[in-house]
Sn-glycerol-3-phosphate import ATP-binding protein UgpC
Amino acid sequence: MARVVFEKVTKRYGDTEVIHNIDTAIDNGEFTVIVGPSGCGKSTLLRMIAGLEEITSGTISIDGRAVNDLEPKDRDIAMVFQNYALYPHMTVFNNMAYGLKLRKFSREEIKARVDQAAKLLQLEGLLQRKPRQLSGGQRQRVAMGRCIVREPKVFLFDEPLSNLDAKLRVQMRLELRNLHKRLRVTSIYVTHDQVEAMTLGDRLIVINGGYAEQIGSPLEIYERP
Ligand code: ADP
Ligand code: ADP
């Protein structure tokens, strides 16, 4: 678990400022949703946290260490994307194990972590299948499994459910909530969908045109007088 702090974070592409002076903190174990319309700067924010995008000015730190000072492998962040890009020729087990193999974990440790994640995600019977032999929801769970096995301090989610049909999206929202209750890993989730934001977030950051317009609980933000 980790605390993520934004201090006067600004992003410019050329002369265009797309993120303006964002100041906020995300607590240990909190599920925060960054919500706003397309083009408002959500992905840019997430990518800056992941260290995939340079921060023009200000700092983002994780447990007191600025992200840009850390090597990618030392960032302890795992990111789940919209197109979850499983390796098609690898089994579910190897898809989940891949990142650990790269990091030279022992075979025993890899097996233990993959088995544990598979249990958590109800993928136990599917470990020898290839991605094409899975449903959309199962594939999305494998993508999450690949992140969970690394035991990161922070999970980043970039609209991970937007390619799923409506029914599956609702189911996966519940699964994500339950997963977060069990793991309590600090999670930052980007979406343009207000319903998704309300059902998932402990706290919401509403972005509009690169400004953090509102920050608060779903009740504080969406309650109408
Ligand atoms: P969102 O994720 O909310 O849809 P983005 O973070 O992708 O928004 O984009 C925020 C703004 O920054 C948009 O106006 C977009 O056109 C612009 N933008 C994003 N990436 C680049 C880039 N690499 N170069 C120039 N402008 C960019
Ligand atoms: P990490 O565990 O650090 O997230 P990944 O396992 O996601 O690392 O690999 C990083 C990137 O390398 C992937 O996004 C993918 O594009 C590429 N890659 C590495 N090995 C393969 C492979 N065998 N097949 C397809 N893509 C691969």
Q: What stands out?
A: The mean pLDDT is 92.
